[in-house]
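Action item from last week, closing it out:
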Amino acid sequence: QVQLVESGGGSVQAGGSLRLSCAASRDTSSLRYMAWFRQSPGKQREGVAAISRDGRTTDADFTKGRFAISKDKSTLYLEMNSLQPEDTAMYFCAATLFSLSTTVALDHDYYTDWGQGTQVTVSA
């Protein structure tokens, strides 16, 4: 099990940038996969980007190269550029000790530990 604490959310105008952080209570190299998800009111939680223990990344199509996931020994990051109003959501960090294939890396059902989320609001 791992405790995850997100930070870095906020309000920006369209075209702006934010960097989200997720502090983990254990070495991230001990976690098979970590990922970012987001959820807007009335919508299902959707995967944004995932990163494996050895650094392989999987990105949702909607990121279109605007977002980049990375990690160091203690923290998961999500660099978000060219933000648009449709990116407005609560962003969650997640992790799992289980090995995943890239086909399910963005499926929230496969993650066992979650943070409380950080709100991102993008105005037009």
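Closing note: The two ends are 39 Å apart (CA to CA).
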